[in-house]
Hints:
Elements: E1 2-5, H1 17-22, E2 27-34, E3 52-59, E4 61-66, E5 69-74, E6 77-81, E7 90-91, E8 98-104
Antiparallel strand pairs: 1-6, 2-8, 3-6, 3-8, 4-5, 4-7
Amino acid sequence: MKKLQVSELVAEEGGTIFGNLAMGKGITRGGVHIFKPGEVAHGGERHVHEIEEAFIILQGKARLPIDGQTYDLQAGDVVIIEPGEDHHMTGDEDEPAVVIWLHIE
């Protein structure tokens, strides 16, 4: 897992911040998810991918267990899940997150 801030996503000349995030790889899928208070993604089932997955927290807070360690996230955080890392996200009870998710391969 890699964690950084949105402010660290600097576009190279002629590029975009998403291109910088993907580090030369392609973004193949993505979307925006608005968590309800306490909502657990994927029905609480942890899962893994064979590709990288990035989360950009636009608003609110969330918790992200990865391979048994839980990370507290807030607006401005960017997380890149490495292939094979077991994960799922939960929206905060008081300030549920709005999240962009991207599959990178």
